[in-house]
Design brief:
hydrolase; DNA-binding; 2 domains; lyase; Endonuclease III, domain 1; mainly alpha; elongated; iron-sulfur; 12 helices; Endonuclease Iii, domain 2
Length: 214
DNA sequence: CTCCCGATAT
DNA sequence: ATATCAGGAG
């Protein structure tokens, strides 16, 4: 898609979803890190439900590290992948305590060294906890970017690279949230609601549908 | 590429 | 019944 059209798409999405922001509830970088690890293949609603209870007692590295893998796993069970997530949260917490003086690191390089933390999770933490411009490519951003044609790629890394090239740095974090909101409300995985999509005129996916019907 | 995995929408 | 949900590791 042409750069001027990409800017127009972002403008329309910003007007459509002015309230778009991080959907995960957190009160510290550490809470956001844990919530984001939990959010893999799980709805943010479920994560918030689990963490509201979890963070009452266990909201710091020092407190979480007192739990066994089985104990933590049981508390986060309903988020799915609970054995991996429990092991990763405890592993990441251990590293934060040993190597980072109990503070969540604020660089991509250090974040992705933590177990269970890849580029997507690292970008969420950088953007929402530390105010660093970043575009986390999750399932929604990946799907919506490819459909619209604002950044096409076979992997999240490729889509992230394209988005960073096509979007002004100071719009990265906001755009990331617009794309997620749009993916949830209109450009859904199963039955995208193109009839009510404000950016359909610019969308490659929609325009291809129109072509096929001719 | 496969595996991890429970909850919900369709 | 099955696809999908703020992915990451082996």
């Amino acid at each position: 898609m042409k750069k001027e059209n990409i800017e127009e798409v972002i403008k329309i999405l910003s007007e459509t979803y002015p309230e778009a922001k991080c959907a995960l509830n957190f009160n510290s970088p550490y809470e956001l890190l844990v919530s984001t690890i939990l959010s893999a293949q799980c709805t943010d609603v479920r994560v918030n439900q689990v963490t509201e209870e979890l963070y009452k007692e266990y909201n710091t590295p020092e407190k979480v590290i007192s739990l066994t893998e089985e104990e933590l796993g049981e508390k986060i069970r309903s988020c799915g992948f609970y054995k991996n997530k429990s092991k990763n949260i405890l592993g990441a917490t251990r590293t934060i305590l040993k190597e980072h003086n109990g503070e969540v690191p604020n660089t991509m390089e250090e974040l992705i060294k933590l177990p269970g933390v890849g580029r997507k999770t690292a970008n969420v933490v950088l953007s929402n906890a530390f105010g660093v411009p970043a575009i986390a490519v999750d399932t929604h951003v990946f799907r919506v970017s490819n459909r619209l044609g604002i950044s096409k790629g076979n992997t999240p890394d490729a889509v992230e690279k394209g988005l960073m090239e096509n979007i002004p740095r100071d719009m990265w974090s906001d755009t990331h949230h617009y794309l997620i909101w749009h993916g949830r409300q209109i450009c859904k995985a199963r039955r995208p609601n193109c009839d009510n999509c404000p950016v359909a005129p610019y969308c490659e996916f929609f325009n291809n549908l129109v072509e096929e019907k001719k």
